[in-house]
Amino acid sequence: MSPDQELPPLQVAESLLDLVGDTPLVRLRRVGAGLTCDLVAKLEMLNPGGSVKDRPAVAMVDAAERSGLLKPGGTIVEPTSGNTGVGLAIVAAQRGYRCIFVMSDKMSAEKVALLEAYGAEVVVCPTAVPPEHPDSYYSTAERLVRETPAAFRPDQYSNPENPRSHELTTGPEIWRQTGGRVTHFVAGIGTGGTITGAARYLKQQNPDVQIIGADPSGSVYSGGTGRPYLVEGVGEDFWPTTFDPSLVDRVVEVTDADSFLTARRVTREEGLLIGGSGGTAVHAALEVGRELGPDSLVVVLLPDSGRGYLSKIFNDQWMADFGFLIGPSPTAGDVLHSKDASIPDLVLVTPGEPARRAIALMRDLGVSQVVVSVTKDLPLAAKEVSGAVNELQLMDQAFHDPSVLDKPIGDVMGPAMPMVGIGEPVSRVVKCLDTANAVLVLEGGHPIGVLTRADVLSFLASRSPG
């Protein structure tokens, strides 16, 4: 190059935060092969922090700095499923803030480790408590804000910058990338920020664009009560103000099983490593897409990568333990289905009931074990199981102290039974029964029955010749 020629400009971002957004679309050719419509995915895992939450994280901090709510040396405190925390942690690392994040105990260990890698402090709280409980992750976050000097809580559930960030970026990107031909937009509903903000922009451009919310079974958006479910980062147990339901044309309820199995399918068929909430969204998109013709273009938003779920939904043993995978016979499910139909598979009591109630149930129903759970409403979640009562244990306690019979079950119960998946081999059940009186069988993450040594022996005897 001669001295008088100009050098080409450097193609270098000034900050990692400048790389947030403008994520690409890709056609889901294999997963959507059976559809007449066009199915494309917006790859939000390609944001610097690996998720769609980078967008509101930057926007919320920018707004807090402008308003003076967050000052140099301050601390960001936020309850998060992990992804918003990563986005906030990246902003904090760039700008010199301290971070404290509150997470529920259903989140993967990888997510906790990731936040700590950015220098954040992580406080883990129980899932199976209501939002108003002092140990809930909402209440814990509020306490930490009060106790921490110069603390700022972005509060993604009520911060208008959350949906606004998607109205200003995600929606316009989808419209531009599809040339205005998008007819359906599908996204999971968590805080509601993504779907609300993108919907505002898309419906301003074309009111006929259909907005589809994907929601885990048990979440309030699809009619649940917010009871525990296993998929992370989507669904809620309350209605955030960042969600505008008037913009959503339809909500598709998706089970944990469909979410996880769809995520695994997308990963193996498309080479896209996505998380469980991405599986939720794709399952909903496929359900909607089956009803559409060739003139329809469905855009499904994939919120994050599956890298944070390698120990869970991409771990065959974890999937089998929770009853999402079925192995070769004979299985725990085979034993359960062979039991006497006159005896209930699952008998539930709550911690507040008197011990006498457990005894009466065991006597009347002909069972030797009852499960203690925070609710009797079915389907029960594994996280809602708090313990167990068996007749031998209770008889021994009552023999030494008759007043035990009038105590709450929560005071006299033993630990929860070992849990096995419905598709796991009988050998796994036998191994668990070496050290326990009974095992709890899970299907799709939900307890569905109890197996004892007598049940296994009866099953094996029925299979032996003669």
How is the secondary structure organized here?
Blueprint (H helix, E strand, L loop, with lengths): L24 E3 L10 E6 L10 H14 L7 E5 L3 H13 L2 E7 L4 H9 L3 E5 L11 H11 L3 E2 L8 H17 L6 E5 L4 H13 L4 E7 L33 E5 L1 H15 L5 H14 L7 E6 L13 H6 L10 H6 L10 E2 L5 H11 L3 E5 L11 E6 H10 L8 H4 L6 E3 L4 H8 L4 E6 L2 E7 H11 L3
Parallel strand pairs: 2-10, 3-4, 3-6, 4-5, 7-8, 7-10, 8-9, 11-12, 14-15
Antiparallel strand pairs: 1-2, 12-13, 15-16
Helix pairs in contact: 1-2, 1-5, 5-6, 7-8
Quick synopsis:
By secondary structure, this protein is of the alpha/beta class. The chain has 15 helices and 16 strands.
Structural features:
CBS-domain; Rossmann fold; 17% strand; 15 helices; alpha/beta; 466 residues
Structural domain tally:
3
Sheet with most strands: 6 strands, mixed
Strand content: 15-25%
Radius of gyration in whole Å, from Cα? 25 Å
Shape, per Cα inertia axes:
globular
* Mean pLDDT score: 93
User: Could you list the spans in which at least 5 consecutive residues all have pLDDT below 50?
Assistant: none
C-alpha end-to-end distance: 92 Å
Main-sheet strand order equals: 1-2-10-7-8-9
Could you tell me the CATH topology label of the largest domain: Rossmann fold
Strand element count: 16
At the first level of CATH, the class of the largest domain is Alpha Beta
Helix content: 25-40%
Note the total helix count: 15
CATH architectural arrangement of the largest domain: 3-Layer(aba) Sandwich
What is the SS-derived class? Answer: alpha/beta
